[in-house]
């Protein structure tokens, strides 16, 4: 890997862990770009037909709720997306419809539904939501997963519980059920930034024109090694 300073660039050998992290980040980067390209192609094709016929079909395809024996950052993100969609459903299909009934004075029986806005706030709230605390710990010098979990454990929410024996874990009560997350690797996975030298390697050594197009908008590859990683 190449470490950039103000006046020079220094080649530093990767450790095995760093090499594996760079490999995984590249694989995820290729997957994300191919997925975005595929969606653009499908949307372009559908849009042309929709303009001709005046009809269109919209499809939302996401992962289902996940709950494994060991749940990490990937499951946390997937379940957060499902939690957010459930909140949107509650808002559009339930709350707004009830407001419409009230305005038009239509008789109705209140249907029981679980309001998950508290769980959404626990995850995405600022400045004390789980994601905000994860970003904050990623910016702290020598930030670590243990420091992140310690901050999460200080939160007060009926949607959060913390196992007494598993100090590196926390539990979130989602609308679909309670899930225990193991925080090991959360910080690294949240950063997951492609290094400039990895993107340069793709552009200079890869013979696939398709991959070149996928990485064409990346410039020199984003933040340098000595820059603070931008969590995402």
UniProtKB/TrEMBL annotation:
Top-level lineage group: Eukaryota
Q: Where is the Myosin motor domain?
A: 1-232
Q: Which UniProt keywords apply?
A: Actin-binding, ATP-binding, Motor protein, Myosin, Nucleotide-binding
Pfam families xrefs: Myosin_head
Gene Ontology biological-process entries = actin filament organization
* InterPro entries xrefs: Myosin_head_motor_dom-like, P-loop_NTPase
Q: Which GO terms describe its cellular component?
A: cytoplasm; membrane; myosin complex
- Segments passing through the bilayer: none
Q: Which PROSITE patterns match?
A: MYOSIN_MOTOR
Q: Which GO terms describe its molecular function?
A: actin filament binding; ATP binding; microfilament motor activity
Q: Record's CDD domains?
A: MYSc
Q: To which protein family does this belong? A: Belongs to the TRAFAC class myosin-kinesin ATPase superfamily. Myosin family.
Question: What is this protein's name?
Answer: Myosin motor domain-containing protein
Q: Which organism is it from?
A: Cryptomonas curvata
């Amino acid at each position: 890997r190449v470490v950039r300073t103000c006046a020079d660039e220094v080649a530093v050998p990767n450790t095995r862990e760093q090499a594996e992290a760079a490999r995984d980040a590249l694989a995820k980067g290729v997957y994300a770009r191919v997925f975005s390209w595929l969606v653009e192609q499908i949307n372009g094709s559908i849009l042309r037909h929709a303009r001709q016929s005046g009809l269109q079909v919209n499809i939302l395809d996401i992962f289902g709720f996940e709950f494994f024996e060991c749940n990490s950052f990937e499951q946390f993100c997937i379940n957060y997306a499902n939690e957010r969609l459930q909140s949107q459903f509650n808002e559009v299909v339930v709350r707004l419809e009830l407001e419409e009934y009230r305005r038009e004075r239509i008789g109705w029986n209140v249907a029981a539904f679980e309001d998950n806005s508290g769980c959404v706030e626990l995850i995405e709230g600022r400045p004390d939501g789980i994601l905000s605390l994860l970003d904050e710990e990623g910016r702290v010098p020598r930030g670590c997963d243990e420091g992140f979990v310690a901050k999460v454990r200080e939160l007060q929410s009926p949607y959060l519980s913390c196992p007494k024996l598993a100090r590196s874990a926390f539990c979130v009560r989602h609308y679909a059920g309670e899930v225990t997350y193991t925080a090991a690797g959360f910080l690294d996975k949240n950063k997951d930034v492609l290094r400039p030298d990895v993107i340069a390697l793709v552009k200079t050594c890869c013979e696939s024109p398709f991959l070149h197009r996928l990485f064409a908008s990346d410039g020199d590859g984003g933040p340098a090694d000595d820059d603070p990683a931008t969590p995402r």
